[in-house]
Design goal:
It contains nine helices and 15 strands. With about 325 residues, the protein is of the alpha/beta class. The strands form three sheets. Strands 3, 4, 5, 6, 7, 14 and 15 form a seven-stranded mixed sheet that branches. The protein has a six-stranded parallel sheet with strand order 10-9-8-11-12-13, with helices on both faces. The chain has a two-stranded antiparallel sheet with strand order 1-2. The relative contact order is 0.16. The structure holds NADP nicotinamide-adenine-dinucleotide phosphate. The site of NADP nicotinamide-adenine-dinucleotide phosphate has 28 residues, from helix 1, helix 2 and helix 3.
């Protein structure tokens, strides 16, 4: 079969011939891959920087995708940690880690949307007790996951959603899909930006932060929000999901003592595979029911090497079609 193959962590995958994958376990099955997306998680596996990375090579990247089974079903699947990822003409899936999709669904849109959508969906459903009527701040709202997070928070019943991010145009676009208020991050005066974020959070009495940035952005945002909190005894659930502005953050003791800040993370590990898999059918149904603006760039898998280089930092989610 043809596949994208990583032979070195400092070089993008190349389109090559590879031996076909074989199903061995009772729940395994070979599918024809229809679409597999280049999520940040896939990139970090392919360059060896993800926290789950084992350092083994060669590998076929791709953590999920949409495929067609031998009996003609279209399924969204999530792969276990494997060297035989989804960026290939065929992949071995585990029936217990997939959701059957309607036949007429667009595989490219689903492959693009499920991983970014899952981040907020799982954080709000599995990592805290989220109550309809609570208010949510999405920190880093202009990426694929952040844009989905705004819409999903609203769908799950958030009364008020603040979208904070760098890109003014995309922030403005979020106002028509659920953001009640936007805050522009970045600029020359980070303290002023943080203060604006603190004011917006105080006005909304924010209950939950979905944080895709962490690092330097969270270091400014947390004290700015806590200082202005109208009731510091009111719980503030800070869910760390991504780390676009740094893997590290120094947590000051007073943040945790002087306000009811509760920091948790959401991702592979803090949410078990069983819990993630249990959410797939509901999320797949929700996404296929439409309504989401999905920004996918359909790309032939044979162009993987070039697309890998070009798409770094791009906002359109690259989806490979074998
Ligand atoms: N834990 C989970 O379950 C889970 C699931 C999916 C994703 N994630 C993580 O979530 C993060 C975002 O994923 P994604 O799919 O949305 O990626 P993406 O589409 O590439 O978006 C990344 C976003 O980060 C923003 N960004 C980068 N540097 C920034 C800075 N200095 N200040 C403000 N914003 C900055 C970019 O903003 P601009 O628009 O201004 O360039 C871009 O919008 C990644 O870290 C990913 O690994 C986690």
């Amino acid at each position: 079969v043809h596949a994208a193959v990583v032979r070195s962590f400092d070089h993008p995958p190349r389109y090559e011939e590879h031996s076909p994958p074989e199903a061995t376990g009772a729940d395994e099955e070979v599918v024809e891959v229809l679409a597999a997306a280049l999520h940040p998680r896939v990139r970090s596996t392919a360059d060896g920087t993800h926290y789950e990375s084992t350092g083994e090579l060669p590998l076929i990247p791709g953590i999920d995708g949409v495929g067609r089974t031998a009996n003609g079903e279209t399924v969204y699947f999530v792969l276990p940690d494997t060297l035989m990822g989804s960026m290939a003409e065929r992949a071995v899936i585990d029936r217990r880690r997939c959701a059957v999709l309607p036949r007429d669904v667009d595989p490219v849109s689903i492959a693009a949307a499920m991983n970014p959508a899952m981040s907020a969906w799982i954080a709000l459903r599995q990592r805290i007790v989220f109550q309809p009527g609570q208010s949510v701040l999405v920190l880093g709202a202009t990426g694929n996951a952040g844009q989905m997070a705004v819409q999903i928070a609203k769908h799950l019943g958030a009364s008020h959603v603040i979208a904070a991010g760098r890109d003014r145009e995309r922030l403005a676009g979020l106002e028509s899909v659920g953001a009640d208020r936007t805050v522009v991050l970045g600029g020359d005066d980070p303290e002023r930006t943080a203060a604006a974020l603190g004011v917006a959070a105080a006005d909304a009495n924010v209950d939950v932060v979905l944080d895709y940035l962490w690092g330097t952005a969270a270091a400014l945002a947390i004290p700015a929000i806590l200082e202005r909190r109208p009731d510091r005894g009111r719980p503030l659930d800070w869910i760390e999901i991504g780390s676009m502005t740094g893997l590290e953050l120094t947590v000051r003791s007073e943040w945790l003592r002087a306000a009811r800040l509760q920091i948790v993370g959401s991702g592979q590990g803090s949410v078990s595979t069983r819990e993630i898999v249990a959410e797939l059918p509901a999320l797949a149904t929700h996404i296929t029911s439409g309504g989401y603006a999905i920004n996918a760039a359909m790309t032939p898998l044979s162009d993987v090497e070039q697309a890998w280089r070009m798409s770094s930092g791009s906002t359109r989610r690259v989806v490979f079609v074998p």
